[in-house]
C-alpha cells in the first residue's frame, strides 16, 4: 500500500451504519487493522483505506450508503492509491454486490458479515493481486471464530456479541438472509470476554444478539439466556449489564426473575412489539399476540416496579388499516414505554412482506407515524415526570458541550443532565431528579460514588 505523502503507518477511515451489532463488528475490523499497523482518522482525505460497514435493514439506509459510496469517486480520482472497501449486511445481498460490481468500479473490496475475521487475507489479496475482491457468500453457518482482536471505541461502554444470526424470518426482515441462522457462543468464551471488560473498568456492558432470548439453544450443552445472565451477574465489580434484542416469543418469566434478583442487571427491557394488533402480528410472522406481549409486561413489571420498557414499532405494515393501527396506539398507552424506535414500513428485497399488497399511500402512513410519535411523547413525558423527586444511580457519560452539564443515563436508559465535576465522567453518581422535560431529566448530585443498586 502506498502511504500517501506521509511515509508513516497506513491510515483507515471506518464508517459504520445501522445497529449496535454493526458497531461491534466495526470494533473487530479496527482491531484487526490495528494489528496490521493501521492508525485511524475521521477525515476521508487523509485515509489510505476507506471502509463502510453497511446496514440493510431499511431502504433509506441503503440509499444513504449508495449516495456516500458515489461521493468517494472524487476522492479516489484525487488519490488513486486509496483503497475502498465495503462490508456489512448490504454486501450479503447478491443484487447489491452485483450493482457494486457494475456501477462502482473504484470499489476494491467487498465482503459480508461472515468474512470479517478474514479481513487481513482479503486486504492482502486486494493489494498483492491488484484486483477487485468480492467475498460475500456465507461460509459454514455453524462456525464462530473466537479471538478476533477488538479495538473498542470507548472506555465506559462495551458490547459483547453472545450470538449471531436469526431463525425467525419475520416477514418484513432481511436479517436471517444476510446474517444466517442462529449460532451461540460458548458461555465460557462470553464469560472470559466479560470478565476482561469488567477488569478493564468498563461500566456499561451490553450483550448483543438478534434474539438473545433464544441464546444457547443450539449449543451441544444448551444454556438458557437467563442462566447466562445469572452467571455473568456473579462477576465481581462495579458495572451494569444490559442486553438487546429480546423477542417476546422467547422471553421467559425466568429471565425476569433473574433481572429482578440481579446485582448488576439494568432494569431496562427492550422488547420489540412491532404492532398491537393480532392480525398484523400474524402477518408479520411474530409468533405472539397482543395478550402474550401484555402478560409478559405485567409479569416483568410485577417483578421490577421500576422497570423501563422500550420497543420497536413498524407503522403502515402492508394491509394494515387505520383501525388496526389504533391497537398499536392503545398498546403503547397501556404499556407506558419510556421510548420507542418507530419506523414506517420499508419493503426489503426477498422478504415475504415485499410481495404483500400495500394499498395505504405513503402520505397517509406519514400521518399515522406523526400520530404515533405524538402519543409516545405524551406517554414518555408522563413517565419521566413520575421520576421527579427520586434518586437514581446514573452512569456519567460526558459533559454536554451545549449545556455545560454532565450527562448520563439511569439504569432504565433515560438521559439525565446535571451540574458536576469532570472527575465524575465514567463513574456512577447518585442523582436526585429535580425536573422532567419530555424524555430528558434534569437533576442534582445527591451523593457520588455511592453504593446502590443498578
Ligand atoms: S427476530 Fe425478526 S425482526 Fe428480529 S432479526 Fe430476527 S427476523 Fe429480523
Q: Assign the CATH architecture of the largest domain.
A: Alpha-Beta Horseshoe
Q: Could you say which small molecules are bound to this protein?
A: iron/sulfur cluster
- CATH homologous superfamily identity of the largest domain: tm_1862 like domain
Number of domains: 3
Total DSSP helices: 12
Q: Over the alpha carbons, how many angstroms does the gyration radius reach?
A: 23 Å
Q: Mean pLDDT, as a whole number?
A: 92
Question: In CATH, what is the class of the largest domain?
Answer: Alpha Beta
Report low-confidence residues grouped into runs of 5 or more. 449-454
Alpha carbon gap, first and last residue = 48 Å
> Total strand count, please?
19
What is the topology, as strand order, of the major beta sheet?
A: 2-1-3-4-5-6
The CATH topology of the largest domain is given as pyruvate-formate lyase- activating enzyme
Class of secondary structure makeup: alpha/beta
Characterize the overall form.
globular
